[in-house]
Design goal:
single chain; 38% helix; ligase; Amino acid--[acyl-carrier-protein] ligase; EC 6.2.1.n2; aa-tRNA-synth_II/BPL/LPL
């Protein structure tokens, strides 16, 4: 890969040609090679080692979650364009025959499917908040969790860094406003230092989520004005528009109020998370250091292959 050429097509073509990713016929859905998976595995070990002193409780959720939970979270209000729900056939023999006939005729057979109670997880932390709220009051010192999950967002693209199904590693702090802001500030420093050890160019910048519609512009402006979201950016498919590979988010008491996350005195909890886009970091490493991991800089290999 020519690290001087930054565009989606050249990167994707190189990933296919070198057998690092494999086409599926759907933009944003790719097979991954053993080398690609090994890089992700070793990066995850690095993240785990960096976060180990904090003694977070580890929980891994599946890529599906309760549709009712997704609805209550407010995700559909802010990001309806990204959400996905699982649909299944629920008819009898007559409907099955109709379905097969529609498929044979090239018709829209999916109209015979109905939504199940399962939604595809849009972010690793979404199933966490109702799970913790059900346990009762949050202790005064707060709670810290380490999460991992496949996530789905419906934004098909030729940009390999914008996959529809991808993995997210997160640390989530639930506590007072002071506790969660301190947690986020700590990871803003640690996250950048970690990426720099991988010899990747990066910058941290104020950001906003892709809120939907005209009202979304106001929400995005408010998010920026309050400094609620920062991203660590690495040039992957563009120098002018680098890719967000790490995200540092302060939710205020949104999830506390939504799910009734409270301290023993009845005060609502605040929350913050740091998210690591695993595929994006791997793509950044292949983009900047080449397709052959054995030829990567010795200092980078020492960091990744020593954990």
């Amino acid at each position: 890969m020519d690290a001087k050429t930054f565009d989606s097509k050249s990167l994707l073509d190189s990933l296919f040609e070198n057998g690092i990713l494999f086409e599926s016929g759907i933009d944003g859905l790719y097979g991954r090679s053993g080398a690609f998976e090994e890089v992700i595995e070793r990066f995850e070990r690095l993240v785990t080692r960096l976060g180990a002193p904090d003694e977070a409780t580890c929980i891994h959720f599946p890529p599906g979650m309760s549709r009712a939970t997704l609805e209550k979270s407010g995700y559909m209000k802010s990001f309806p364009q990204l959400a996905g729900c699982v649909h299944s056939f629920m008819g009898g023999e007559r409907e099955h025959a109709q379905l097969l006939g529609m498929m044979a005729d090239g018709g829209g057979w999916t109209e015979l499917q109905k939504a199940t109670d399962v939604a595809l997880t849009p972010a690793a932390c979404y199933p966490l908040y109702p799970t913790i709220a059900a346990r009762g009051p949050v202790p005064a010192q707060g709670l810290l969790f380490e999460l991992s999950s496949y996530c789905f967002r419906h934004e098909p693209s030729k940009d390999p860094a914008r996959m529809q199904l991808f993995r997210m590693r997160e640390f989530v702090k639930i506590g007072t406003a002071e506790q969660v802001r301190s947690f986020r500030e700590s990871w803003l420093k640690r996250g950048r230092a970690m990426i720099e050890t991988l010899d990747l160019p990066c910058e941290v910048d104020l950001a906003n989520d892709p809120f939907f519609g005209r009202g979304g512009k106001m929400m995005a402006n408010n998010q920026r004005d309050q400094g609620l979201k920062f991203e660590l950016l690495i040039p992957v498919t563009s120098i002018e528009k680098p890719t967000a590979c790490l995200s540092f988010n302060y939710h205020q008491d949104h999830f506390g109020r939504t799910w009734g996350l409270k301290f023993a005195d009845g005060e609502f909890c605040h929350s913050a998370c740091v998210g690591f886009g695993l595929e994006r970091v791997a793509l950044a490493l292949f983009r900047h250091h080449g397709p052959d991991t054995d030829a990567w800089p010795a200092a980078v290999r020492d960091v990744l292959w020593s954990v």
